[in-house]
Structures
1.
Amino acid sequence: MASTAAVPFWRSAGMTYITYSNICANLVRNCLKEPYKSEAISREKVHFSVSKWVDGKPQKPTIRSDTPEV
Amino acid sequence: MFRQVAHRLLTRSTTNYTTAAAATIRRPYSTDVSVDTSSGDSDFVEAWNKVAPNIDPPKTPIQFMEPRPPTPSTLPSKLTVNFVLPYASELSKAEVDMVIVPATTGQMGILPGHVPTIAELKPGLLSVHEGNDVKKYFISSGFAFVHPNSYADILAVEAVPLDRIDPAQVQKGLSDFTQKLSSASTDLDKAEAQIGVDVHSALNSALTG
C-alpha cells in the first residue's frame, strides 16, 4: 500500500523535523532586539565531547563547542 | 481466515487485573479513569507487611503520579492552557477563554470543549484571549495538544512577545533568503532558503498584522 500523504518540502529534501525546527528557532532568535538576542544566543550555546566506541572501547573524543577555544 | 483475526482483535479481554496493573493498562480516553494511588498495590503491601511489619512499604512511582484531571460531564467555561518552552514555562494551568494557534493547516481557535486534537504548529502568531486582554507571542514551531478535559498543552521551541522582535532584522533576513532561494542549487540549500523565507515572512506579517 503506497502512502499518499503529502510530505513537507523539507522532508523531501532530506531534512528531519528536528533540524527544521532548530533552523526556525535560530532564525527567530537572530531577529530579536538586543538584550533578548544575546540572552537567547548564550542560552543555546552547547559544549560537549563525543567519542565513538569500537569493540567496547572509546576512541579519541572530539569536542564540539560554541565557546571559542582559549 | 481474516474475518477470525479481525474478530479476535475486536473482542476486549476480560481478565481481571490488580489495582496497580489496572492503573497502567492502556484504555481509550484515560481521562475517564481516576486512579486511587494512595494505598499502592494491595498485594505488594500485604507481602511487605508479612516480611517487615515495622517498616512502611516503599512508594512505587505510580503513587507519585497525579491522576489526569477528569473530563467534566458539562462543558467547562474556561480552557486551561499549559504553554511551555524547553527552557521556561510561559503559562502553567492558566484559565483562559480562547487560544488561537498557528497550525500548519491555518490559524486554529481552541475554545473550551474543543474536540481532542494534535496539531503541528508552523512559525506564526499565538494569541491568548482572556476576557478583553489578548497576549500575542510569535512561535517558531512546535505542537499543540487539546485533551478531552479542556486542557490545552502548547509546546514551542521559541516564543517571543512581539515587542522583542526587531523589524529591521526581519526585513534584512527576508531579502537575504529570497535572494538565496533564487540562487540555491542543491535540494537542501533550496529547503533551507525556503524555510528562511517562510519564517521571515511570518515574522513580517505578525509585526504588521
2.
Amino acid sequence: MDSKKPDLHRTSSRRSTHESQVEGAVPVPKTIVGFHVDGASPSPATEGLLSKEAGRSSFTEGGGSPTPVIIPPTFQRERFETREPTPQEGSAGASTGVAPAFGSVPAGSTSQQSGEGSIASGIPASARPKSLDLPAPDVPGPNTTQQQGNSGVVPPFVTSPAVVQSAVPGFEVGKPPQSQPAQPSAPPVHRSPSPAAAAPAAGVAPSSLHGFSVNSAQQQTQPQAQQAQPSLPQQQPQRLQQPPVQQPQKQQPQQPQQQGSSAPKLKEMSKAERRALQEAQRAAKAGGQKDQDGGSRKEGGGGGGGGASAGRAHSVASSESHSSHRGGAAGGKESKSAATGQKAEDKGAPAASLGDAAAKAPKRRPARKVVSLNSTELFAHLPPYQKVSVSSLLSHKDAVHMHPAVLQLGLRYADGTIKGATARCLAMLHTFCQVIQEYVTPPGKSLSRDLTHELNTIIDLLVQCRPLAVSMANTIRRLKMRIHSIDVNAPEAEAKRALIEDIRRYIEVQIIAADRLLVDCAVQKVTDGDVILTFAYSHIVANVLTKAAALGRTFKVMVVDCRPELEGQRMLEKLQASGIACSYIHLNALSFVVRDVTKVFLGAAAIMSNGTVMGRAGNAAVAMTAHAHSKPVLVCCESFKFHERVQLDSITHNELGDPDALVSLPGYPGVSPLAGWQDIPRLGLLNLKYDAMPAEYVTMIVTEYGMIPPTSVPVILREQQQDASASGGGGGM
Amino acid sequence: MAEAVKEKPSSFAEVVENCCAQLRRRQIQGSLPCAKRTAEIMRALLTMQRHPDAASLIDDVRAVGYKLQAAKPVELAVGNIVRRVLHLIREEAQTEKSDSEADSNDAVPQGKADGKQDVMKSQGVEHLHANEVILTLGMSDTTYAFLREAARKREFQVVVAEGAPRYDGHLQARKLADAGIQVTAIPDSAVFAMMARANKVLVGAHAVLANGGAIAPAGIHMVALAAHKHSTPLVVLVGLHKLSPQFPHDPDLLYNDFRGPAEVADSDMQARGLPQHS
C-alpha cells in the first residue's frame, strides 16, 4: 500500500505540478505558500508575495512562491475543521489575525482545486512531527491535504470540534486493527478532530480510501486508528484524504509521551523556533515518507533539499518514529518537506523536540464556549483596528494595479495625516479625479461598468486603511449613480471630462460653497462678550470663530480636548493664530468651566435622520454637560454629511482606533501601568473614535440651508433625494 | 520635620505644626492617611496634656482641629475626624464624668479600617449580579477592594475610564486585571458611549457632603450625568471618615484643589499663548 501511495496521490485529484516536479529527480526548492507574517524571519523578497498572488493558480513553474510557510502548530489543529478553502490573499502581508492568514495556506500536495498551492499534507504532517497521533496536525491535515488544493490547510480558528463531530460518524475508512493500544493519548487525541489516532493505525490501508484523494488517505488511517475513540476522529476519514498512514503502532505511545513532555505555548516560542518547528515537522514527515516508501525519490528530494539539514531532519524524524509518518504524503510532500527542510538547516535538531511539543499542542481542544465578559466584544461587529504600513498596503491584492495616488491617500488616512470627515471626503474626490483622468477603458468594456468596478477596488483598498466615513459613503453613492448614468455611446474622453467636471462641481457646491454659507450663518450667533466652548477640532467651527474674530467681535473661547487624539491642540493653534483669547482644558474639567460658558459650538462627522449627531468621541459628553447647565449647543454640519439611517447608541456604528494609543502618555513621567497589556489575559483596551450625541442635547444645527432644529434633518434628506431623483442620471452628482 | 513627629516631640504645638506643614505641602495624600494622622494628633493631645474636665478638652480639640483643617481646607476628612472625637468626648463626659477618655480615642482609627473591610465583604456580593458590567473612573482603593471581594463570588467585568490627567485609571485597570477580573480600559471620552452598556457605576469619592453630594476627582460629574441619562445606578463607595456634615454652598471654589497646567498643556502650548513680539 505504501508503495502505492504515491500512485494514489498521483492518480487522485490532480496533483499540483509542484508535486510532479518534486517527483522529478531534481527537487525544486519548494516553498509553501502560507501566510506571510510581516516582520517575521526574513523571507524572500516581498514581491514574491505579489507574484505568488498572481501566480497562485499555477502553483509551480518552479518560480513558486518563495515565501516560506509559517504555520504555528496551535493553528494546525484547527485546520481540519474548516473545509472550505480559506482565501489565500489573506496571507499576503497579513499582519492581522491569523485567521485570514491561515486561509492562505494552500494545500500543497493535493490540489483538486485550482492550483492553490497547498502546503498540503506537508503542513499537516509537519504539524505532527513524526507521530501521527498528534491530532491537531491530522485535523488540519485532512482538510488541507484532502482538500486537495483546499486552502483550508490552516483553517481559521473558527473550527470547532462540533463541526467535526457532526460529520458522518459511520464513515470509517477502515478500522485500523490496533488502534486502541496505541492510543494512550487517545482521549486527548480524539478531542482534536484530526485523527492523530489514524496515524498509529498506520499500516491499515483503508479500502474505502479510494473514495478519497490519495492525499487524505494518510490522514484517514489516523482516524481509523482512533476508532475506539469517539466518533469524532472517525469523521476525520471523510475529511482526510491522505494516503493511509502506516505507522507502527508503537509510535503512538511514544508520541503522546513526548508530546506530553512539553508543549511550549505558541507564544513562548520565538519565530525562529516556530519556523524550526514547522520545518522539522515537515522534514519529519518527509523523512517518514521516505522511510515508508524507501523511494529514491525521497533521496533525490532530500538531496535537492539541501542535504545536510534535510538529512539531519530526516534522520531525526526517522529516529523519532520511523515510518511513523503517514506514508501517504507521497513524494511530493516529502520532497517539499525536504526542500523546506533546508530552510531549517540550523534548526533540525531542536525542531524535533519542538515538533513533539507542537504535536501535542494541537491536542488541546479549544475550550467550550463560555459567556464572554469582554467589553471589547461588544464591538466585534466592527472591523478591528489594523495597523497599516506601506508593506502591508502594497501586499494588498490590488495594490499592484492601483494608481499610486490611491495608495498615498490610503496611507494618509491610516496614519492620521488626513483627518476629519470633510477633509477625507475632499481628498478622496481629488484622488478620484486623478484616477478618472488617467483611466482608460479596456477594449470591449463599457466605461461606466468598468469604471465602477475600478472604483470599487479603490474603495476596498481605502477601507482597508481606514473605514469609510459617512460623508465619504454618501459621496461615493452619488458618484456611482452619476457614473451609472454615463451614456454608453459617449466618447470616452468626453465622458471622462464631464464626470470630472461634475465631481468638481460637487466639491464646489457641497463642500466649499456650503462651508461659506454655513460660516456666514453661524457667525451671526457669535456676539460680543461670548464665552464659546468648542470640542476637539472641527474645521468649520474654526472657520466660524476666525471669521467672527475677523469681523471684530470680542469673545473668548474655551477649547476642550480629550485623549488620546488631542485634536484640541490643533484647534487651539488655529484660534490663537487669529488672535482669539483661548482657554484650554481637558474634558474632565468641563463641569467646572461650563457655568461660565455662554454657547457651545460643535462640529459633526455625520447627522442621522433622527437628529443623532455623530462626532468625535467626547462630543456627547460635552453636549450633555452643556445641556445640563442650560447652555445652547450649536452643531455646524454641511448637508452632505446627513445620513438617512437611525442610530440609537454609539456601539452599533463606530470605528475602533489603535488601542496602543491609550497606553502612550506623552509628557507623563513614567510608563503607564497598561504597558504590556497584550500579555495580560484579562485586560482589554478600547479606543472608540466616534460618539452618538442624542438629539435632545442639540439646540440647533447650522447647515448651508440655514439653522434647523434636529428634527428637520429628515426634511433636508428628503429634499436632497428628491433633487437627486429629479435630476436623474443627467445632471451632476 | 518628620522625625520631630516620630520621636516624643518637645511640645504638642510642634506636633501640630509639623502636621499642618505636611498637609499644606501635600505630603500626606489621600483621605485615609489624613484621617489617620488627625486621629494620631488627637490621641497625642490626650496623652500629652492633662485636662481637668471635658469642657477644656473639647476646647483644645476644637482649636487644634481648626488649625489642621485650615491647613488643608479641601481635605474634609480632617474635620470629620475632629468632629468624631468631639462627639466621643461629649458622650464619655455624659456617661462617665471622668477625666481622661484616652481609650475612646484609640478606637477611632482602628474601627474605621475594620468597618470598611466588613462593608466590602458583605455588600459586594449583594449588589452585583453575574455577568454585570461595572463602570468606574480613575483609581480608588475602596472600589478596588470592593470589586476584588465581589469577584470571589461573582463573575463580572469592569470598564475603567482612565481619568486624565491623573491617568490613575490605568493603575486601577491593571490592578483589577491582575486580580483576575475582566477589565476594559477606555479613555474618558468613551464614557458616554459605554454607559449605554454599563449596569452600574461604582466610584470612590473624596468626600460625601451633607446634601448627599460627593466630591470626587475630576470627571465624575460627567460620569454621573451620563449615568443619569441612561438610568444607570451610581454607587459611591466611601469610608466613614469621608462623610462630612458640610453643605456645598459653592463647592467648586471651596472644595476644589488645583494642580499645575503642565499636566494638561505642555510648555510649548503655553508659550504659544504668550504675547508674541516680532
3.
Amino acid sequence: MQLPPALCARLAAGPGAAEPLPVERDPAAGAAPFRFVARPVRFSREHQFFEDGDVQRHLYLQDVLMQVADVPEKPRVPAFACQVAGCCQVFDALDDYEHHYHTLHGNVCSFCKRAFPSGHLLDAHILEWHDSLFQILSERQDMYQCLVEGCTEKFKTSRDRKDHMVRMHLYPVDFRFDKPKKSRSPASAEAPGDSGERSEGEAMEICSEPVAASPAPAGERRIYRHRSVSELVLKPVLNMCLVLRILGCTWAAALLILNSER
Amino acid sequence: MWSVQQFLRQAQRGTEEKEREGALVSLRRGLQHPETQQTFIRLEGSMRTLVGLLTSNQALLQLEAARCLHELSHSEQSTVAEACLPATSYLLTYLSGHSSDFIELCLYTLGNLIVESEAVRRQLLPQGIVPALAACIQSPHVAVLEALGYALSQLLQAEEAPEKIIPPASASSSILASTLPQHMLQMLQPGPKLNPGVAVEFAWCLHYIICSQVSNPLLIGHGALSTLGLLLLDLAGAVQKTEDAGLELLACPVLRCLSNLLTEAAVETVGGQMQLRDERVVAALFILLQFFFQKQPSLLPEGLWLLNNLTANSPSFCTSLLSLDLIEPLLQLLPVSNVVSVMVLTVLCNVAEKGPAYCQRLWPGPLLPALLHTLAFSDTEVVGQSLELLHLLFLYQPEAVQVFLQQSGLQALERHQEEAQLQDRVYALQQTALQG
C-alpha cells in the first residue's frame, strides 16, 4: 500500500480542517432500488466484528500474566538488619526488606506500636483507640466510620459498624483490621501483645518486636478517671496534634477533628 | 513428598521463619497444577490458614501467601476462584498500602479472580473494589498502574458490567461516578509521560466502557475525543519511527473508542472544540492502515471502520481524502478480503454521495477500473456495494458511463443479473448505461 509522500508532512504540520467542497445531492441518489445511506456505524460489546482484535488482546494478556507469575530470582546482598529501633529482622535481599518495612514499620501507631496495612486504617485506629475526645463525641453522635474506602456511613458503636461491614459490604466477621477495643475498666492498661483473640496467623496489628515488660506510662493508655474539663480537652488535642504531626498533617487537620462537633 | 496439608502445617507452625517461607514456596509451586489446586480447596481449613498467613505480621510469609493465592487465581475453574472469596477483603485492603510489588501482585490476583467467577464479582463490588481501584490510580509506580489497568479491564469486561458496574446510578459506587474516567484519559495523553504498557490497559478499559454505551456523552465531556485523536496522531508518528510490533495493541482499542464515540449525537450538537475536525487524523489513520497492511491485516477492518465514521457525515473529511490523494491507496486495499473490500467501497460511497464536486475529483482515475474489477467478485456484498458506487458515479459524473461501456461494463453487470439481491440494481444500471 503506497502512501503519497506529502502525507507524512501533513501529519507533522499543524492542525487544520479541509475547506469542504460544496455538497449537492440529487434525490435520485437514494431512489430505489439503490439503498446506500452514509452513516456512522456503531458496534456493541459482543459484536463479532471485534473477534480478531479481541483474540490478539487475549494472547497479549496471556504473555503478561505468565511473566507476572514467574517469580524472579531475588538478587542477594550481604545480610543486613532492619534499622528501626527494636526490630531484629535480618535480610539478604532488598525487595524483602522493602516489603518488610512497609508492612511492619510503614503505618505504625505511636501509642501502642500496632502496625496497619494502610494509613487509612491507622488513622481510624488512633481515633478510636487513643483519642479521648473521640470517645466523648461518640457518646453524642455517630463517630465510628465505616472502614471500606468510599463508604461514608458512621455508627454509634464499633459493633454497629462491624454489623454494617458484614451485612452491606460482605466483609468477614473476623476481619483482622477491625478488632474491637478491650472493655473499659478503670485500672486496665492494654499491653500490645495482649490479644485474647490472637489467631493462628498472628493478626497484623501486633508488632513482631519482642515486647519486654512494658515500661510505657499508663498515661498513654486509655484509662478513665475523673479529669478536669481542660484536661479532658487539652490532653487529647495535644495527643492528636502529636500524632498528626508524625503523620505529616497540619494544625488544620487537627482542628477538623475537633470541629466534628458542630 | 510432602502433601499440601504438610506444607500448610509447616508454614503455619514451623519454628524457623525460613522454614515456613520455604514451605509456602513449595506449596506455591504445587499450586501451579490443577490437581493440587483441587486438593487445596477441598482440604478443610486450608484457605483459613492461608488467609491467616496473608494477614500475618511476618512480611515474607505474607508475600509468599499472596503468591499462593495468585497461583490459585490462575485456575480456570470457578470453584477455585470461589474458594478464594475469604481473601478478597484483605486483597482490597492491601491496595491502599505502600509496598508497590505487593500491590501489583494483589491487583493481578484480583483481576484473575474477577474473570473467573461472577460470585467473586458479586462480592467484590459491595466490598468496595471500585473506590479501592480508584485510589490506586494515584500510584507513581508504572507496574502498579499497568496491573490496575488489567484488573479494571477485567471488571469492565464482565457480562453484567453495563448494568451493574459502569453506570453512575449503580448502588455501590460505579466506574462512571468515580474519578477513574478522567484519570484514565490522563494516562492516554500523548507526551513524554505516556507509558505504552499502561496506556494499552486503560485504552481497553475505555473501550469496554464506551462500547457498553452507558454514558458516552459524559466521556466526550471529559475530552475523550480530543485526547484519543491526539493519541492517534502520536501512534502514527511512532509507527513511522520504529518497527515496534507492539503498537497495534494500543492502536486497536483507540480506533474502537474513536469509532464508537463518533456515533454519539453529542458529537454533533456540542460546540466545535468537542468535535474531531483535524485533518491530521485522516493522515494518521492512513499511516496506521499501511502499518496494518504490512504487519496485521486482521486489523484493517477496524481502521476502515473509523474511516467510515469520520467520512460518513463530514464533507470536510471527504474533501481531505481527495486533497491528500488517498483514494488510490484506499483502492490498493481492495484485494485484501471481502470484508475489507466492502468497507473500502462504503467509504468511497461516503465521498461520492456528497455530489458532483466530489465525483469530479474521483474521475478520471483508478476508480472505474477498480470497480470493473470488483464487479467480477463473487461475493454478493462486495458486488452490491460496487453497484451503489457505480450508481452515484453515473449520477454525478455522467461521462463515466461511456468509458464504462467501452471497458465491457455491461458484460460485467450481466454476470449478476440472476442474483436475487442484486438484480434490481443491475437492471437499473444497465438501463442508465444504455440510455447514456
